[in-house]
């Protein structure tokens, strides 16, 4: 029988890698248009730098949580903390894609 923590951790790792892939495209390939909330009046380099960097951070956190859950098992407080941090970073990413800090 396979340990449920191994399955759950693996799912988190795969999801984190998907987020990292999208963050890579936005941050390093300059594909700011891939962000769902990208405002075309904002400089794409600014969005790529900040929204892409935020996406990379989100992906790293999800992968780290998946590895941690695979090794040590599930802990509800850590999952709750991850969800809160992801919600905050998602909101920041949305603001960056809309032009926060772009300086007009």
Query: What is the gyration radius calculated from CA atoms?
Result: 15 Å
Order of helices and strands: HHH
Number of helical runs? 3
Looking at the chains present, what oligomeric state does this protein adopt? single chain
Largest sheet properties: none
**From the helix content, strand content and strand pairing, which structural class follows?**
mainly alpha
Task: Indicate the overall shape.
Answer: elongated
* Count of individual beta strands: 0
List the helices and strands and how they pair.
Blueprint: H1 4-27, H2 44-72, H3 76-98
Helix pairs in contact: 1-2, 2-3
Give an overview of the whole structure.
- The chain is mainly alpha-helical and 104 residues long.
- Helices cover 73% and strands 0% of the residues.
- The protein is built from 3 helices and no strands.
- α2 packs antiparallel against α3.
- The longest helix is centred in the middle third of the chain and has 29 residues, at 44-72.
List keywords for this structure.
single chain; 3 helices; elongated
Quick recap:
The chain is mostly helical.
